[in-house]
Amino acid sequence: MQSRVYIMAGGGTGGHVIPGLAVAREFAARGHRPVFIGTREGLEAKLVPQAGFPIEWISIGGLKGLGALRKLRTLFELPGSVLAARGLLRKHNAAGVFSMGGYAAAPVVMAAAMLGTPVVLMEPNAMPGMTNRRLARIARMALVSFEEALPCFPAGRVELAGLPVRQEFFDLPARAASNPPRVLITGGSRGARTLNLAARALAAAPFGVTLQTGAAMRDELAAALPAAEVRDFIDDMPKAFDQAALIVCRAGAGTVSELAAAGKPSILVPYPYAADDHQMANARAMERAGASRVIADKDCTGDRLLAEIRECLAPGRLEAMAAAARRRAMPGAAARAVDLLEKYTGTKN
User: Fold this and answer.
1) Looking at the structure, do residues 81 and 199 belong to the same domain, yes or no?
2) Quick one: angle between helices 302-312 and 317-327, nearest 10?
3) I want to staple 139 with a disulfide (CB 3.0 to 4.6 A). Which of 27, 57, 119, 261 is the partner?
């Protein structure tokens, strides 16, 4: 098989960068050279070098949810960013482009269209992001994680493939809940204030609680919940999933994909300020599948959270939710993206 350079586009947040890293590792495992293009302001500036992959820089900002001056600046930067990206594609003699979306991806995908370079994009959310919606017609194929996203892309060039998730989540065995069952509450690495405050109502709960608070509220919550396991950060999330009968968390694409891979029942409290309210769309899709219950952030009081947990712990409910979650698991997403780009660039065996 001929070794090629493939460009990895997309950045800004971990939701864009982390799945891209999984695809980059798959390219590298097959003997190709993945090269990222991103901005110095996005999370890719930290995560990509840490992972050992090369990265090139362009200057571009976002459009969604920003003020008029920032939008004007972005529109002013866009032509130069596209030309810079085109130069980088030529510099590396790029065979193809993989895009996770986000504002950093737009100039790269547009440059690829100018050069006739094949593009495969991945959309992780039930409500596709603005970049992927606008650039869908440029891509040879869009890979989506939710059936709800399929109509947003051209027929015949969209496929339900899932989102790259660490194999450790898929490998977790199905097991009966411990007695008493344990509930994991996590708002991500920095915690979520809404979840932290609601968790106060669980001080006398008849089930175990593991609460990831983030650093800012750890001591306060540890004092309020003396019987709980209160941690500012969980570095082995697959192990924490394995020990939990039920998970309370936000509804980012990576999180709901991990829940599906692990077959874990959940109560989802979507982050209310996510672009296009995409976390609520993700959460409602999981709810329709029977895998999750949903509480809007504004409604997530301690009493409501406790009531929802009790509902989930009713006889037979966890098992049904777990089975529904597992049915949404889609392994092999990174491999599928690489398969397609190898096919489009004539490097597939």
Assistant:
1) no
2) 90
3) 119
